[in-house]
């Protein structure tokens, strides 16, 4: 069984960490509160944050990172705009060289969310290498790093490399085409489409 292709709820259920009743309650809470399933399970008291991250770390063989005080370089933050980082609950850590070429190490609270990974890869043009972090620490890092990012110098915009602007426009177009494709194939739920439309 390929754990990376299973949904988080299925993994936790198979491992006996949650019951079907608890999973159903968490899914209902997730739908109403528009948060991640893991966060729903934690908020409802069915799992602790540490237990959830420990389980994902061992079952998916993923690295767990501490984002407290972490500051990525601005070029890395630029790959994922703040609104999309919040929408997918992800935080870009560094650009690196992966097995399949250039990659982006991405802290994720739900590394089983293949829809988010596919969308981020399409948007950035890089392979995404998920690493684990809690939803709370990701939101704290987003608030700390994006909000405190100084506004760009208006003079600098005049000298902005045209290739950079073109690349950004192409990335946005690719992202929108990906959303349409996933919707057409029925791989995105109506709630997910609405979420992406607000981005």
TrEMBL record:
A Pfam family annotated for this UniProt entry: MshEN
The organism's place on the tree of life at top rank: Bacteria
InterPro entries the UniProt entry points to: T2SS_E_N_sf, T2SS_GspE_N
Stretches assigned to the Type II secretion system protein GspE N-terminal domain: 60-146
Protein name: Type II secretion system protein, putative
UniProt organism field: Syntrophotalea carbinolica (strain DSM 2380 / NBRC 103641 / GraBd1) (Pelobacter carbinolicus)
């Amino acid at each position: 069984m390929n754990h990376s292709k299973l949904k988080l709820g299925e993994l936790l259920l198979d491992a006996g960490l949650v019951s079907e009743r608890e999973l159903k309650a968490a899914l209902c809470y997730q739908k109403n509160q528009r948060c991640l399933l893991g966060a729903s399970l934690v908020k409802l008291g069915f799992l602790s944050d540490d237990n959830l991250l420990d389980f994902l770390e061992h079952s998916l063989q993923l690295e767990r990172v501490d984002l407290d005080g972490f500051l990525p370089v601005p070029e890395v933050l630029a790959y994922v705009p703040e609104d999309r980082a919040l929408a997918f609950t992800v935080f870009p850590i560094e650009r690196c060289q992966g097995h399949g070429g250039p990659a982006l190490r991405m802290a994720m609270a739900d590394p089983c969310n293949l829809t988010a990974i596919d969308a981020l890869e399409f948007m950035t043009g890089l392979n995404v290498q998920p690493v684990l972090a809690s939803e709370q620490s990701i939101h704290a890092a987003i608030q700390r790093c994006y909000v405190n990012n100084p506004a760009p110098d208006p003079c600098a915009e005049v000298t902005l490399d045209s290739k950079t602007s073109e690349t950004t426009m192409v990335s946005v177009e690719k992202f929108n085409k990906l959303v349409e494709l996933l919707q057409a194939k029925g791989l995105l739920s109506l709630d997910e489409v609405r979420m992406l439309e607000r981005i």
